[in-house]
Amino acid sequence: MPELPDVEIYRQDIERHALGRKVASAAVDADRMLRGVSASSLRDAVRGRTLDSARRVGKHLLLQLGEGGGWLHVHSGMTGRAVVYGEGDDAPAHARLRLDFEDGGHLAFTSQRKLGEFGLVDAPESFVRDRGLGPDPWEEGFDRKGFRDRLAGRRGSVKSALMNQEVLAGLGNVYVDEILFQAGLHPEIPVTDLDENTLGELHATMVQVLRTAVERGADPGRMPEGWLLPHREDGASCPRCDGTIVKARVSGRSTYRCDRHQEAPG
DNA sequence: TTCCATGTTCCGCA
DNA sequence: TTGCGGAACATGGA
To answer: Is A87 a catalytic residue?
Structure first.
């Protein structure tokens, strides 16, 4: 599930329930998810550190380790979650990195498919630079003009441009489909076919979709009835018009759209 | 048993 | 140079 709204909810959970707690030990279950660090180095880096702050950049989570300990980087892949739980609670399934707090509680990062990664980074700013991540949709100063400038001159489809983390960071398959559905744009329209006004409206739709998704806890079951998300099924009725939801592959990803109000390209 | 999956990266190709 | 499609990654649910 982890796209920007999901990761933002994980961040908020961690901020509310894990900040200020001291890590007594850590356990790594999937070495293949470690990037640029060994399991023992990672354990050593977090042991004895307090979690000082929790930031999100696109789909990436960065946890600040106290006393100059740098930052723990977590990417959840396709199936990862962050879970804070108490001493007596059941551990979540597929926990791949678990921090054990001195007070007995835990913070686990799960990943059923072992996609995603864990690592240590010096600072959020250098991390963003090293990864070549585009601006976060909520970043201060990233307005509709900035959005247009990022997309301008790209030759591919609007879907692949929005999915590209170097263009802007945080959107994935599900929310890109949702944004294009609400904007009434076919996913395969070339970016070059979109005029300034349309791009401005697309920016506004993106911001509104992401804000609403976070307000509703990024829970698909709580999204508005008029959204695509509750109707993401081939052959479903469009909740906005008389059209039908159709499934196709765009840029190698399963793509859902309305065959009526998302006009065909060309 | 077969197909599919919310992400990323790498490769070959246009 | 830019971007696309496909494969790969590892696992489990329908």
So the answer is: no
